[in-house]
Every structure is written in structure tokens, then in C-alpha cells.
């Protein structure tokens, strides 16, 4: 009798295991995606972040969910990554929202606005200040979602072939610059051009560009801008931070098991933290090398920065006046920014100003 009961129980257990196996497979299916990036392989920062996302996703899912990253132009033109995601050519894409301002001006807030938010402030607005819901509404029109996946931190003002002494010096200047920044330069009389990172140096070398705004010393050194434009301007008031995003096709996202969705979000968060740390650690050594090689570090004059700020305000108001989606996001963004500036004036911003003023005193 005992033997019969044992065999019956064993058979039942074996049957349960057989039935459970398909359920486990359904919870952790093998999925393969492709992810084009807007950034070239030569940049271990932004392109490195794309590779980090794919590596972390694989680690977190025991290799069941694999994403293959492709550098700029390999399978999709660098400024058409969102298009590929929207139409389902690829399941996801690694890019920046402001590249698609021509399709939806409000997408610039997903990346950054001149005289805007620092990386910390941007993350606070997106994650705690209602920004993500507004951004989700914008990307819904492109059959996509957007997951934040890193920030460059404050960028430099750019490389110029000539010294920029007054706002009048921008008139007729052919400058590579993306997003809302291009409209601001246009207000100043410049001729902005949106060119992918991998194509900037040839344009500078041929003389079809007079200036370029890209990222900062570490990336700019790798792309060789100092060889053809010696004046390097700061501070980066026009781009206090640039947030990158992972766009995911909505149907592809909805087809992912929940645990894979969590893994993808976690991978983006980890890659993003590493990206900003890399820029903060490597920009200063790169700047020292550039100056040592002959780059001429310059500062924007107060007159130029005032003109830039005025032009930014005008551009924001013009877009808000003709685009209700832009106006809606701007209202939220402005209110959050006002509080962040107040907090900075009371606490960390005031502390940083003191530290800068007394840095020669040492500790």
C-alpha cells in the first residue's frame, strides 16, 4: 500500500514538473531585439552606454533577452532612429529626443533646453515632478515609449574658427547644433545645421562649417575638432545637460514579459549612472590635454550670454504660442525649474559658489 502511494505521488510530481516547464518557458522566453544608436562606435561614452544596456539586460535575464546594438548608420541613419522604432523596423533605439524636434518640438524637453536643468534636476523633474507622464504622451504619437538612459552633464559651448566677442559675431556663422539650441542660434543670426556626430569633422575640415557644438572635452577630443577649430568656448549655459533615451516600439514593449520590462528599465538606469560618472571623471583630463595641444579656452562674455538667454526665452514663447503640447510641457518644466533654482540659491548652488571662490585655500 505504501509503495502504491509513493508511486502515485511520484507520478503526480512528475506530471506537475512537465506542466510547469512550459509555464516557466513562457515567463522567460528567448527574445532577440535590434537597437540602432544615433552615436558612433568611436565614442566610448554615449555608444558605450548603448553597449552597457545590452550587456546588463542579458545579465539580468540569464541571456534569455538579448539586444544587439548597432552604431550610428550601420542599419539606420543616425537621425532616423525614432522613425525605425515607430514603424517597427527595429524594436528599440538609442538616441536623444531633441533630434526629432522637427516632428514634435516638445520632444526637446526629453533631452534638455538652453539655460535649463542640470542632470540631477532633469531626473527629478522626470521621475518625481510629472515630467515622465508628459514625455510619455509625446512619444505615444510615435507608437513608442521612452526610458531615460543617461545624461552627458553640462556641455561646452563649442569649437569656433574665430573669436566670438559680441552677439554680432554670430551673424552668418554656419554652426552644427541640434534641438532648440539651433533655433536660438538662428535668432542670433547664425545658420544652424543638424549633422550627426560622425559627419561633423569632415564638414569642419571641408570648410562647410564654421563652428560646432557637440558634447564636451572627452568626446570632442576623440572627434578631433581642435585640429580645425581652435577656439573652445564655455560655460555650457546653452546645454547644462543632455538626457539620452531608449525608445521602444509600443507593441514590442507590450509583448515583453513584465520581468523583462523591469530588467530593461534597470539596465538603462545603471548605464545612465555610469555614463554621467564617465563624463565627470574624464572631461577635465581631456580638457587639459586639449589646451596643452594648442586649443584656446575662451569664456562667453556676459553680453553674449545675455543675448543667448533672451533668444532662448523668445523661442520658447514662440513655440508655446503655436503648439499646445509644447505649452503644456513648458508650464510644468518652468514651474519645476523655478523651485530648483530657489533650492540651489539656498543650498548646493550657494555652497558650490563658495567652494569655487575659495578653491585656492585648500583643505
From TrEMBL:
From which residue to which does the signal peptide run?
1-25
GO MF term (any one): metal ion binding
Indicate which residues the UniProt annotation says bind Na(+).
214
Which Pfam family, any one, appears in the UniProt record?
Answer: DctP
Protein's UniProt keywords contain NAD = no
Q: Does the keyword Protease apply?
A: no
Which Gene3D superfamilies did the record assign? Bacterial extracellular solute-binding protein, family 7, Periplasmic binding protein-like II
User: What name is this protein filed under?
Assistant: ABC transporter, substrate-binding protein, family 7
- Specify the species: Bordetella pertussis CHLA-26
Amino acid at each position: 500500500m505504501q509503495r502504491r502511494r509513493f508511486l502515485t505521488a511520484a507520478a503526480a510530481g512528475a506530471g506537475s514538473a512537465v506542466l510547469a516547464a512550459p509555464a516557466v518557458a513562457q515567463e522567460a522566453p528567448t527574445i532577440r531585439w535590434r537597437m540602432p544608436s544615433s552615436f558612433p562606435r568611436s565614442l566610448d561614452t554615449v555608444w558605450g552606454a548603448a553597449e552597457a544596456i545590452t550587456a546588463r539586460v542579458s545579465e539580468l535575464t540569464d541571456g534569455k533577452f538579448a539586444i544587439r546594438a548597432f552604431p550610428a548608420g550601420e542599419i539606420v541613419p543616425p537621425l532616423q532612429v525614432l522613425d525605425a522604432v515607430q514603424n517597427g523596423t527595429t524594436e528599440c533605439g538609442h538616441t536623444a529626443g531633441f533630434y526629432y524636434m522637427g516632428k514634435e518640438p516638445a520632444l526637446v524637453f526629453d533631452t534638455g533646453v538652453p539655460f535649463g536643468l542640470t542632470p540631477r534636476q532633469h531626473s527629478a523633474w522626470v521621475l518625481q515632478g510629472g515630467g515622465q507622464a508628459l514625455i510619455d504622451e509625446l512619444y505615444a504619437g510615435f507608437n513608442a515609449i521612452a526610458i531615460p538612459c543617461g545624461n552627458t552633464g553640462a556641455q561646452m559651448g563649442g569649437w569656433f574658427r574665430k573669436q566670438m566677442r559680441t552677439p554680432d559675431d554670430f551673424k552668418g556663422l554656419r554652426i552644427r547644433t541640434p534641438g532648440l539650441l539651433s533655433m536660438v542660434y538662428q535668432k542670433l543670426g547664425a545658420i544652424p545645421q543638424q549633422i550627426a556626430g560622425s559627419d561633423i569633422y569632415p564638414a569642419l575640415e571641408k570648410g562647410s562649417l564654421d563652428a560646432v557644438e557637440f558634447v564636451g572635452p572627452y568626446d570632442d577630443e576623440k572627434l578631433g575638432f581642435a585640429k580645425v577649430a581652435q577656439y573652445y568656448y564655455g560655460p555650457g549655459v546653452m546645454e547644462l545637460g543632455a538626457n539620452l533615451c531608449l525608445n521602444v516600439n509600443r507593441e514590442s514593449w507590450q509583448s515583453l514579459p513584465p520581468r523583462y520590462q523591469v530588467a530593461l528599465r534597470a539596465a538603462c538606469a545603471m548605464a545612465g549612472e555610469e555614463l554621467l560618472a564617465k563624463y565627470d571623471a574624464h572631461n577635465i583630463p581631456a580638457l587639459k590635454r586639449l589646451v596643452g595641444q594648442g586649443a584656446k579656452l575662451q569664456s562667453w562674455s556676459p553680453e553674449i550670454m545675455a543675448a543667448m538667454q533672451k533668444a532662448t526665452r523668445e523661442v520658447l514663447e514662440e513655440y508655446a504660442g503655436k503648439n499646445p503640447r509644447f505649452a503644456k510641457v513648458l508650464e510644468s518644466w518652468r514651474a519645476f525649474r523655478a523651485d530648483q533654482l530657489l533650492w540651489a540659491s539656498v543650498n548646493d548652488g550657494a555652497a558650490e559658489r563658495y567652494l569655487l571662490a575659495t578653491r585656492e585655500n585648500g583643505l
